[in-house]
Amino acid sequence: MDLMDFLLQRMTGIVDRSDEDNDVWDRFGAEVAPLVIDSVGFTRTTRSRGIVHFLTQLAQARSHTERVLLELDPISFSFHADNCFAFFDHANAAVEAAIQIRKAINTAAIPLGPEEYFGVSMGVGYGRLLKAGGEDGYFGDEMNIASKLGEDLGSRDDIFLSSGAYSALTIGSQFEFDERLGQVSGAEFQYYRLQGEL
Q1: Which of 27, 81, 180 is nearest to 194 (CA)?
Q2: What pLDDT was estimated at residue 6?
């Protein structure tokens, strides 16, 4: 039974509701590092060169991203539109994947236009999430923050980490980070930008 089915059954009384939240977290909770990858230049490129051109370049970028991820053994990953959602056991693995994906995409030099190449921005979270099952992936605060970082706040080549991911890193001393403040639905949060191209 996946998370949503369980919640529906619990709501209708088929499943015991004696311990409202703990039973859900005990059954579906896991420590996970989500990596959210978003393309850069989608709107600009589709308006200037058309959707078919962008999708052709996106297909190449997906191929490079998939190759890297298959070498790194994530829990799971999936592509949705111009995004990729990958899940790892630890923040270290998610950050290493982000660095390798950024390098692979930049090395491929996939042209979007005369003076622009395909690029990505990425957000990494780490913490206890609820595994939804199927294509839904995971739900939770660190998933929301990773999505905000990768899809909304990030620009070309950015790798942003939530406070949870940054605190969990044991390889953090190898890198330099800028500390920043952001907002998700009006709630302020701290996050970190990985410096340099590496």
Answers
A1: 180
A2: 79
